[in-house]
Amino acid sequence: MARQGQKYLRESSIRVDSTSLRYPVTELVAPDPDRDGFSSHSRSSRWHQQHGGTGVDTEEEYSRKYVASQSSVFHRSSTKSFPRALLWRVLDNRHILDLAPCDLTIPDEIPPSSIELHRLRIRFPSPIKPSCVTFTEGYGDDLITIDVLTESLTLYTFAFSSRTFTAEWSRRPLAEWCHVQESAHFNLRPPHYMIALPRGSLVFALLDGGLMKLDRSQPLADDYTEQMFSDGSYLASIKGMFIWGSGDRLRGHPNVSANLVVSMVADPASSILITASVSNVLKLWSLDTLTSLNAYDIVNDTTRAQQPANSKQLLGIEPSTLISLIKVSHTTGYVATYCPLGDDCFKLWRLDVTTEEKTTTTKATLTDVLGISLRPQTPDENAIWMIPDFVLDYSGRIRNGGALDLWILWKSNKSSKIHALFDIPTEKESKSTLAWESVRSSAIESVTGGNGWVYSANEDDTERFMRHIFQPGVFSPAILETVLPIYERHYSMLTRSEGNEDVYEPESSLRERVTKVVGAAVSLQPADTNDGMDYESYNRDLQQQWSRFERLCVELSKQGYEALSLTRDPSTRAVVLVRATTVSLVRVCTGLEYAETAGLRNTISLRDGSVSSVGTTEHQDVVLLGALSVFRKSLPQPVISDFVVALTEDALTPPNFSTGDRMTTIYDSCLNEQISDSAIDMLHKRLYSITDLEGALDACYGELVSLTGTSNFGRPALNTRRHLTRVGTELLSSAIHDSTMSTYQALIDVLLFLIVFAVDVSEEFNADHITLYDKFLRVFKTTAFLKHLSGTVLDKPSGPQSGQTLSESDLLSNSVNKLELSKNSMDRNSFVRGGFVLQFLYSRFSLGLGCACATDLINSGGSLGVGKAVEYSMSNWSISDQQHAAIAAAGALVASGYVDESMPLLQFLSVDGLGCYARGRVYLESGHFDKAATFFMKGTTDLASQPLTELTALCLRDFVGMDAAGVSIAAIGSGVMRLSSHIADLLYRKAAYSFATEFVKLALDMRDPQVGNGETDKLFTKAFRAALSGALYDDAYMAMTNISQDKLRHDLLTEFINTLCTSGQSLRLCDYAFLELLTDVEAILEQNARSTIDLHVPFAPNYYKILYSWRTEHGNYQGAASAIYEYVQRLRSGLTRASLDTHDSAEFNTFDIEVTQGYLVLLNTLACIDEKPEPWFLTRRADLDAGQVESPLKKPKIGGPTADYGRQKRVLVKLSDVEREYAEELARMEAILNRQLAAIEA
User: 1171 vs 142, 1072, 1212, 1214, CA distance in Å?
Assistant: First the structure.
């Protein structure tokens, strides 16, 4: 991580024309008001179909298709929306607006398999005006409103939902997604640019210096209002429309006023608009009254504020970012203003908004916070620099009032740079100085020629250049496809006969074409001495041709270096830089990256605003790494290349000799007589300033141990199941690659120094030399492994179609040379060929291999969160122990659904508790429950007694990610009871109920004596649910009766009874004693019977009959008679005269039989009651009128009063009453049958 006391930051970038954004494209054509037509269609996600069949042939075509003239990222306010971030780009000479989702993660609530991201591309009939693309929300959580103003002064409004970007476009009427509007005001008062307000409102800056607000009730509504802002008088707002009002016009721009607004920000919460004009005037406006509230000079220059507008030194008329606003409360915010004139200074203001209660008048004021200007320093003096964008952020790190962060974007004609000013106090005298921090540019923008490459002496020029050109993130396929025909036209000897066919073929085909074309530019000729062939001239010419091709790629890629915007994600507070062809995220440095970022810093005195430069020499490890880097660069490149080859061989080969002998061998074979005395003297001179050399080396090592999975790395918080998107996987892989390469280079410098210092300088070995070499060599080994994973591009699947997804011996082995993938393993929806190996792994195993925690860290907080995600991911990959590495890989595969592919990894597991647990987890996911239970049981005792280590928690991280947060971490090493309970949860989740019951029994048998009743009840509850789900009713009954809590036991009793009844096992109720639960059982059955709405549902349990059987079994014949009588009465009340006409004869006969059977059962039951003069029973009967249908019954409370039951009344029924009703029922049936017979005879 970054050094204490100073932030070390760098960018991590991805190319927009790279693999991550190859989504299916929906192309829409905006309607032309003159022709009133439109069309829309969708194209395939394949590279060649997406971009047409003719390919990219020329530099102009590449610029038109890929290089944006305007671009930024729109962040939605809702963290639950997806996509939350949209990358918008203006392409094709400002005729196309391209929209692409660029979220790094997918929210927990959205299954990745349920979505397929899409891009949206809208073509306009006329060019888009600069700074006239706006995005808003407010009409619903899922609706995005996009307003675009074209050069023809036509305002297009589009309304899209999230589904537009997550599913295939379905053709809809134009009015449902697009609205076209042409304002009459624009003919008289042309607009300059616009900003958006919530709920569809727009504010236009007009060329005559005025402002206009457009309000709409709905984004696509025809009803809208246009209102002009006024600064105090009506004539002042319209004088620019007339000739006599042209006194404030700019020289050379007769239609532009000196009061032209070139920058605006709005605070919708307090209805305040802040504008900056060409004349350096900063104004506050009310969005409610559209009047001016206050005016200031943009940098608080009172003298200049009093000058007339047309006599001031004026700003440029192009729309620009001169204001940035951050709100800290409803009435308070902070504003940063920038003036590019003179000293290029920033001013920090506090915005206070008040509203008078009586008049509801809003007042807004700006107060200079620091009293000084914040002057930035240009990145260097070699170019002309300007600041096109900046962002103000509220950090709140300082207690008294909080603090602000200012991010500024520098841009020159060659490159761009981000500077940051952290912890700006919001009160005077809080700090004495501030320091501008520089953000190191990404590796993409730092692409240069082949100088400084590390290569083997045995590697030829073609291999070396191909390795560099096709290195991940260096050149995109689009760049190579553009350069290839250009180079072939000017340098190649091949006659191109096939033309430029499908340019977006797989990367392997592209690699072969590049090799063929460049190689054909050189021919092997005989030597002048006629002594064989002239290989020396051939190699020299070939290297020259490769240099030309590589230089063409570099020059073309520079077209995309122009910085366009700097934005901040309001949710994660991450800072995003958008260039013409790349998107970069600022992150904290990891590993030894800080050594390349450290340097001079410009400080600002808060007393007088003076600027000075200070170095970072207070950190001795930074000085050491800088000195070692200079020492390495002083040696010949072939010497360093041979040294790296020997060092890599020493790290990956099992040692056969002592460390000292190996160090001597490397020195003798690579460095002996290759190091000059001047280089040694220069190294000594640079190291003199380091007072504690050993401490500096320990500091370097301390930055690396977190990348090796040691105990120094904190335990991660496993509380997420987020997935990385394609953009997230590529960005994370790119960041890991950048960090790995920096750390790898620094480790080469340190190991080179240790060998030279021990062999050449000291001329003798000691324990410190050997110990330090062994420590750094172990880290170099894991870093080399990371370098391979993050620096290898997957051209195409190389394994057999029926092979395993990953080679079990290569996946996490430290001596990995090649990662084999089967054709079946390629998932086109999550991975596109041509990406990183790490990107593929993260795409395939999005819950594993560091992604589960990395996504949580990415979403946790800005640049620090992304840096932590990189560090955590690198630490996950750097586990050197084979057992733990295999467990981590198996967990990642299982968590991603590749259970069969995880099976070969089991051979790397030991038979201890941890190995058995991992085997059980894999077998459990594969459905082999018997094997899973066997291994779980075998390893339970050992694993329950093992202390939980950081390495164990790390390698089991993916298994834990499939469970509830913290379950495995808490169970392992916490005793047999807790571990067995956890295993039972796993088995229960996979419906292995019988095995889950056995492990809960084990947990109960092994529970600690001090365990309380509450935790014991939880175990019994778990045993009950597992046994009941597995139809182990006896075990479920025993678990239920052992629960001590009355309410919980009653709830489980209800669940037990309902399960038995619904599964056709109601007769088993009579097999259990229930003891003190007898009354509850009868009450539950009675409640279920009376709660039944429809008594004729097929296959549903008849609780009246079950209740009758229960009472009969327990000798309660009067209660049984009451149950069956109530059942018969409900059957009879459900068949009214109105319902008779709706029943056919079959249903009617079935119904009658059920009623008569009920009466017969009732009569038999009454015969068992010995009462004089005749049997009787109490029951509830509905008091219904003739022909009335009984309403649904109200659910009674168990043990509640009888009045709670529906609209029924309690009555006494005797045997004679039953006999009378039975006779009436028979008579009714006879009448109906006679009527049916008469109908048949007729």
Answer: 72, 31, 14, 10
Residues in a beta bridge with 989: none
Could you report the per-residue pLDDT of 214-239, keeping only the tens digit for each? 988 887 877 788 888 887 543 444 55
Find out whether 1197 and 1161 touch, Cβ atoms under 8 Å.
no
The lowest-confidence range among 63-72, 471-480, 854-863, 1094-1103 is 854-863
Q: Show the tokens assigned to 867.
A: 């840096």
User: How far is 1242 from 1232, CA to CA, in rounded Å?
Assistant: 15
Helix (H) or strand (E) holding 1217: helix 1215-1241
Among all chains, which residue has been given the structure tokens 């104004």? 283
CA 40 to chain centre: 30
| Pairing assessment for the beta strands 433-440 and 416-425 based on DSSP bridges | antiparallel
Instruction: Please determine, for residue 1035, whether its predicted confidence score (pLDDT) is greater than 70.
Output: yes
Locus of tokens 């709920």: 199
| Token pair for 13 | 């970038």
- What whole-number distance in Å separates Cα of residue 403 and Cα of residue 427? 9
Looking up tokens 């049997």 gives: 1175
Query: Residue 846 and residue 820: Cα distance in Å, rounded?
Result: 19
Is residue 262 helix, strand or coil?
Answer: strand
How crowded is residue 993: how many other Cβ atoms within 10 Å of its Cβ?
21
Backbone angles phi, psi at 889, to 5 degrees: -65, -45
**DSSP label at residue 220:** T
Can you read off the two tokens belonging to residue 452? Answer: 């400084």
Task: Kindly tell me the number of DSSP H helices and DSSP E strands found in the chain.
Answer: 39, 38
Interstrand relation of 9-15 and 433-440 (parallel, antiparallel or unpaired)? parallel
Based on C-alpha coordinates, what's the Rg of the chain? 39
DSSP string, 923-985: HHHHT-HHHHHHHHHHHHHHHHHSPP-HHHHHHTHHHHHTSSTTHHHHHTTS-HHHHHHHHHH
DSSP 763-829: -S--HHHHHHHHHHHHHHHHHHHHHHHHT-B--S--S-TTS-SS-TTTSS-TT-------GGG--TT
User: Which token pair is 119?
Assistant: 């891009």
Q: Which two tokens stand for residue 946?
A: 């093992």
Three-state helix/strand/coil letters over 562-582: CEEEEEECCCCCCEEEEECCE
Query: Angle at CA 999, nearest 5°, toward 997 and 1002?
Result: 115
Angstrom distances, CA of residue 838 to CA of 729, 764, 812, 874: 8, 42, 12, 11
Burial class (CB in 10 A: 0-12, 13-18, 19+), 828: exposed
DSSP string, 614-644: E--TT-HHHHHHHHHHHHHHTS-HHHHHHHH
Note whether 196 and 47 are within 8 A (CB): no
Q: Confidence band (pLDDT; 50, 70, 90) for 860?
A: low
Decide which of 452 and 353 is more confident.
353
**By the 8 A CB rule, do 568 and 391 touch?**
yes
**Burial degree of 511 (CB within 10 A; 0-12, 13-18, 19+):** middle
Bridge partners of 212, per DSSP, are 204, 228
Cα 210 from chain centroid?
A: 42
Burial of 808 (0-12, 13-18, 19+ CB in 10 A): buried
Would you give the DSSP letter of residue 15? E
Structure tokens at 542: 């070939």
Q: How far apart are CA 417 and CA 410, in angstroms?
A: 5
Q: What is the largest CA-CA distance in the chain?
A: 140
Length of the chain: 1242
Q: Give dist(CA 17, CA 195) in Å, integer.
A: 29
C-alpha span between 217 and 229 (Å, rounded) = 20
The distance in angstroms from the start CA to the end CA of the chain is 98
Cα–Cα distance, 1158 to 1222 (Å, whole number): 10
806, 819 in Cβ contact below 8 A? yes
Question: Which of 381, 765, 438, 796 has the alpha carbon at shortest distance from 586?
Answer: 438
Whole-number Cα distances in Å, 799 to 321, 347, 494:
53, 61, 33
